[in-house]
Amino acid sequence: MIRKAVGNDLPEILKIYENARRFMAENGNPNQWGKTNPPQYTLERDIQLEQLYVVVREGKIRGVFAFIPGIDPTYGYIEGAWRSDAPYAAIHRVASDGAGGILAEAVAFGWEKIQHLRIDTHADNWVMQRAIERAGFQKCGIIYLENGDPRIAYEKI
Predict the structure, then answer these.
(1) Could you give the CA distance from residue 46 to residue 6 in angstroms, rounded to a whole number?
(2) Averaged over 93-114, what is the pLDDT?
(3) What is the pLDDT of residues 15-40, one digit of tens each?
(4) Is residue 140 within 8 Å of residue 83, measured between CB atoms?
(5) Where in the sequence is the domain holding 89, given as residue range(s)?
(6) What is the pLDDT of residues 48-103, one digit of tens each?
(7) Which of 41, 42, 46, 90 could form a disulfide with 52 if both were Cys (CB 3.0 to 4.6 A apart)?
(8) Cβ distance 94 to 103 under 8 Å?
(9) What distance in Å separates the CA atoms of residue 60 and residue 42, rounded to the nearest whole number?
(10) How far, in Å, CA of 55 to CA of 70, rounded?
């Protein structure tokens, strides 16, 4: 089951991101989220904007992601080319407590709402790159975050 995150979920959500950062570091990707990303204030804002979702299995939060319809400013410039300029939604900040299939569930959830999705990840995040490609996304190029960090950009239409 997927539902919108609420404020009371925050302690569990923070533990999931802590677990994800540790997993990323242990698997050759220590720099994408470092030791503090995403920061708590970002998650609180996502909850207030009703764009943070949790994946619940057997009554326990097992994963979390942001689903954000509309224009993402970091996707405004791409080295490469988007496949479509049609309205889209972005999936960001995907993390799990170690449970598999969280990205696939997030993509299925988003696909029910709009059949044009975008996502990005760090070049060192091989695990996520494979999951993104298995979910039917195609690599489109490189985008840059507000701080200038590059990310591999994908699109599913």
Answers:
(1) 10
(2) 96
(3) 999 999 999 999 898 889 888 899 99
(4) yes
(5) 2-156
(6) 999 999 999 999 999 999 999 999 999 999 999 999 999 999 999 999 998 899 99
(7) 46
(8) yes
(9) 22
(10) 22
DSSP string, the chain: -EEE--GGGHHHHHHHHHHHHHHHHHTT--SSSTTTPSPHHHHHHHHHTT-EEEEEETTEEEEEEEEEES--GGGSS-EE--S--S--EEEEEEEESS-S-HHHHHHHHHHHH-S-EEEEE-TT-HHHHHHHHHTT-EEEEEEE-TTS-EEEEEEE-
pTM of the full structure: 0.94
CA distance 134 to 44: 30
Residue 18: other Cβ atoms inside 10 A: 15
Tell me the β-bridge partners of 156.
117
Count of domains for the chain: 1
Q: Within a 10 A sphere around the Cβ of 7, how many other Cβ atoms?
A: 9
How many residues in total does the chain contain? 157
Q: Domain containing 139 — which CATH number?
A: 3.40.630.30
